[in-house]
Design brief:
This protein is 81% helix and 0% strand. The protein has 80 residues and is mainly alpha-helical. This is MFS transporter.
Amino acid sequence: LFIIYAMFLPVSFILSMIPSFDGMSKRAITKLFNTILTRAGITLIITTAFSISTMLYTLSAGYPFFLIAFLQIVTFAGIY
C-alpha cells in the first residue's frame, strides 16, 4: 500500500497545482505517513505481544502445558 501511495504522489503533486484541487497534496502525504505509522504501530504491538509471551513461557517452566496455554491465550487476548 505504501508503494502504491508513493507511486501516485507525483501525480497528486501535479494535480494540486490546479486551483480546484487544493489540499490534494496534503491529503496524499497524510495517507502516505499514516500507512507508514500504522505498519510501525502494528509491528510494535506484535513485538510486545511476543516478548511478553516469551517471558511467560520461560517463567512457567515447571507448570503443566494447559496452564501455559491458558496464559498465552490470556496474554494475546489482552493485548489485542
